Amino acid sequence: MESRINDIVNKLSENYQKYGSTIKFEKDETLERYQDYFIEKFSLATLERMSPQETLNELMNMNNQESMVYWLEFKNDEEFKTGLFGGIQGGSAGKYTMFHSKKYNQWVKWESHKQVPISDEEAADRADQIRRNLIKLHNYIQENSYKTIDDIRLMIESIENDGELKGLYRYGWVHKYLHIHYPEKISCYHGWSIFTSLLVKMKHPFAEILSDDEMSPYFFDYFYIDLSNRLNISQINLSRLIGKSYPDIEKTTYFKVEVSKFDRQDLEQMIHSKYFYGPINLNEDLTNITSRKEMMKFLHSINYDEYNATQVNLITKGITENDIVLLVDSNRAQYVGVANGEYEYMQNEKFRHRIPMTWYDINQVNQFTISGKITKIINRVNKAKDQVNIELAVEQGEKIIRSETKKFINPLKGEMREINSLLGKKKQVILTGAPGTGKTYWAQKTVHELIARQLYKNSYENLTDKEKETIKNSEQLKTVVMHSNYGYEEFVEGLRPDTINNQLVFKIKDGVLKEFALKAKKDPDKNYYLILDEINRADLTKIFGELIYSIENSKRGEYINLSVSNKEFTIPKNLYIIGTMNNADKSVSLIDLALRRRFGFIELKPNYDLLDCVIADNIVIDAIDTDDEDALLSEIEEVTEIHIGDWLQTVNQRIVHVLGAEGNDLQIGHSYFLSNEEVITEPGQFVDVLKYEIIPLLNEYTYHNQHQLKEIIGDKMYDSSNQLRFNLISEEEFGTLIEALLE
């Protein structure tokens, strides 16, 4: 926090030297003279001796140019220049809760946003109540040391407990009145919105320690006065320096859009372009529409009903120069764009409604989440904490530059996209599926890809061999093969025997998860991935122990005491867990519901399209290229062939038919027919897979029930004595083998 404040001070100091001669600063003695005159006229002692009627006229009567409310809002002459102590103009007279109305020619109170006439006696009583409450506030300010933010919290809590003060102290004019009396404690900024904008544009860490209820000028005073003291400059002169340093205060609107509004390819294209694409299907140019009311009339005239006028207006005309658009995935920030132009209409493009935009990649630089819900198309980001993070993201993010020479990184697709998306939401994923569906393969491939994009800003396939080797051996990745004897001691921590001075002692030794988590915690700018292969072979409830609480996404970063060492420990937010679970393995119990709720599950199925290949004797024909196939067949009198994908799909259908519901988990995956990620192409390879992997696996599934096995692989694979014809399963008998398999 201190370093961020020092950054703000240094920037303002530099700008003071840079812009000082162009800013009209006020002399301290001038400010003190105006302040002394106001205090003399409306001092605490003066309030204490006023009668109700005097209070009504001298404090609350705006028609009296010598009244306090007039001086606070309008007085601007040689006696007192109210603008030097912060502005409170704007809004209605309702901010004073009562005033003398020209419309009714009598006093009115402001009630439910309406003027309600009251008698002079009631007006005097209300004014007197305001006077007594101002005296109370004087006492609270005088008695509070303001040395820490907790001092202010206690004071505000006491004020809030007083129902009458709670309704008064939040008004800007009350804050200004107290500022003039106590400038060492109350600042010259009196409005919630302007103080919030200052925190945001300065990227001040103070916003991060305030709750939503504490977003008021009284907490901001603590920061602002500290800043004034550090720079040794009066508050009004500091406000002018800030105005010069941050000219776009209160002029920036923050938007968030869910990335699901775009498919991945469109998203990649957008952030590598110079635009934000408005995700609306509307073939009309909106350039000449200048207000939401006009937008409403126009949309009604063309019978457009996909989104309402407010939403369409926001996503098109509502985003103007210097506004910021944040792209989020389930409220997790991914990209941020700064608008550098106005709305444009592109007639012949897929996304016709566009805003010129400079995009920044913040995935690995400033990861954070955005509060609140996302509406059907777009909404504003209103919380100061979120906006500070967005401003930091713009400052720290990597600018995405459109370059035709730079190799384009394809967006994640298929299994990798699904795994990455679920990791972002849950932090841990389990890949399930039948044997051979590529669970371990996709776990490792996805992690390699994610680390490549983080370390090298490039796709894994584009890396050099040396870079790929670096990723495979990276400390960011650890793979553990689970088994039934795995326990809490090996996974989290446990006592291990050791010999010291010939004495047997027991020491606490960190387990795999704890050791890896501590490593990830020390390296928060990188993501760490723990792959737990065959995860359901271990008793997960036992090995995770109390960490079943800590692995949950919303509990990451929270500390709990470990059961062995009794020391505090947490699972860091940058640690992701990918487990693989073989659906066919019935040797262990199912994962209990408590753990299941904390994991996301992705089921991988056999990919028959991947095996779209024909093996025919020693000739391999691509089944898709029919022209080449016809040419080859014309030269061969007789060819026996097998389409691997079609045959495997048939076998799996038979498994489900023969074994019933259980068969869904016992299908055969496509990876049995892959070699170095390529589909096998030789008869000898197919024979080996069938003989040494498929037949033994089916025997296990059927518990060596030859009747069931015959139904699955075909009658012709058996002789008259109901014995499997092993002699057919050879490369020399390949033609006969294929005929038997394809009966």
Search tags:
single chain, 743 residues, alpha+beta, 29 helices, 25 strands, elongated
Fold and architecture overview:
The protein has 743 residues and is an alpha+beta fold. The radius of gyration is 36 Å and the shape is elongated. The N and C termini lie far apart (75 Å). Mean pLDDT is 86; it is low at 403-407 and 618-638.
Number of strands: 25
State the end-to-end CA separation: 75 Å
Shape: elongated
Low-confidence stretches: 403-407, 618-638
Helix/strand class: alpha+beta
Average predicted confidence as pLDDT: 86
Query: What is the gyration radius calculated from CA atoms?
Result: 36 Å
Strand content: 15-25%
Helix content: 40-55%
Count of DSSP H/I helices: 29
Biggest sheet descriptor: 8 strands, mixed
List the helices and strands and how they pair.
Elements: H1 2-19, H2 28-41, H3 44-49, H4 52-58, H5 68-73, E1 98-101, E2 106-111, E3 114-117, H6 120-143, H7 149-160, H8 163-166, H9 172-181, H10 192-202, H11 217-231, H12 235-245, E4 254-258, H13 264-271, E5 275-277, H14 292-301, H15 309-315, E6 324-329, E7 332-339, E8 344-345, E9 353-361, E10 379-380, H16 384-396, E11 398-399, H17 414-426, E12 428-433, H18 439-455, H19 465-472, E13 477-481, H20 488-491, E14 493-500, E15 503-510, H21 512-521, E16 528-533, H22 540-544, H23 547-550, E17 560-561, E18 568-569, E19 575-582, H24 593-596, E20 600-604, E21 614-616, E22 619-621, H25 626-634, E23 641-643, H26 644-659, E24 674-675, E25 678-679, H27 683-701, H28 706-713, H29 734-741
Parallel strand pairs: 4-6, 12-19, 12-20, 13-16, 16-19
Antiparallel strand pairs: 1-2, 2-3, 4-10, 5-9, 6-7, 7-9, 8-9, 9-11, 14-15, 17-18, 21-22, 21-23, 24-25
